[in-house]
Amino acid sequence: AAGAMVFGGVVPYIPQYRDIRRTQNAEGFSTYVCLVLLVANILRILFWFGRHFESPLLWQSIIMIITMLLMLKLCTEVRVSNELNVKRRSFAAADSKDEEIKAPPKRSYLDFDLNYFWHWSKFTDYVQCVLTFTGVTGYITYLWLDSSLFVETLGFLAVFTEAMLGVPQLYRNYQNRSTEGMSIKMVLMWTSGDTFKTVYFILNQAPFQFSICGLLQVFVDITILLQVYLYSYYPQKPVPHTAHPASTKAL
Predict the structure, then answer these.
(1) What is the pLDDT confidence band of residue 120, given thresholds at 50, 70 and 90?
(2) Interval 224-239: pLDDT, tens
(3) Counting beta carbons within 10 angstroms of the beta carbon of residue 121, is it exposed (0 to 12), middle (13 to 18) or buried (19 or more)?
């Protein structure tokens, strides 16, 4: 069971990773799923310093962070290779030698335009963002580590963020009025894995935040499976999206 907890969370992303590599198309997968899991697992690791929970859950977070970075690397490479004549968007300061970068003066250091956030052109920009988030939250945690209220709140935020894992994919499916490009195997594995994980939390008396948010995560997974059924048997016309310079997709 401990081994399944450590490595089981990675398994659902294997078919999605293979589909993206095979088709060279990442449009069906929301990279915001990676963002949610990165934030959740970084917060969970910080929570461990304030309240030591079982080691398999800690190792699971480390393995998941590595997996999500690999998914981001692939999705970024595929997306950029499919986009032509697109201005580069970056998290860090623009390189003046890059002719494609023409950032306005008011964004000379960080591009926090919500239309382009988490839609950068290089994998290194995502790494810089993750490292910045880890540094800031780590420093805050260090300052407030003696506060039990802060530690418990941090634990709740970690598992609640993870419980929202399927929401970006749920919203993307709703936007497209379709689940095409999304690996159904991935969602089925999400559902089975989250069910197993929730039962594991309850039986091993993990902090109550884990059990509550595990149940919420299972509910979101089931809703996505209902979307698969709905959009397969009752096809709907896709909602037109307003294109912006960086991509024809909002997510």
Answers:
(1) confident
(2) 889 888 888 766 655 4
(3) buried
Domain contains 97? no
Is 115 inside any structural domain? no
Please classify residue 196 by burial: count the beta carbons closer than 10 Å to its beta carbon, then call 0-12 exposed, 13-18 middle and 19+ buried: middle
User: Which tokens sit at 71?
Assistant: 């998914």
Nearest to 154 by CA among 166, 142, 171: 142
Chain centroid to CA 94:
25
pLDDT value for 113: 57
The torsion of the CA quartet 180, 186, 192, 196, rounded to 10 degrees, works out to -140
Quick one: which of 137, 167, 139 has its CA closest to 154? 137
Q: Tell me if 217 sits within 8 A of 162, measured CB to CB.
A: yes
| Cβ 6 vs Cβ 67: under 8 Å | no
Does 251 reside within a domain?
no
Structural domains of the chain, count: 1
Is 99 strand, coil or helix? coil
| Cβ 158 vs Cβ 43: under 8 Å | yes
Q: Of 80, 97, 207, nearest to 156 (Cα)?
A: 207
Secondary-structure breakdown of the chain: helix, strand, coil percentages, each rounded to the nearest 5: 65, 0, 35
In the structure, what pLDDT confidence band is assigned to residue 93 with cuts at 50, 70 and 90?
A: low
DSSP character at residue 107: G
Residue 241 is assigned to a structural domain of this protein: no
Comparing C-alpha atoms, which of 128, 176, 132, 134 is closest to residue 45? 134
What is residue 243's predicted lDDT score, i.e. its pLDDT? 41
Biggest distance spanned by C-alpha atoms of the chain: 58
- Expressed as residue numbers, the domain containing 20 is 1-85+121-233
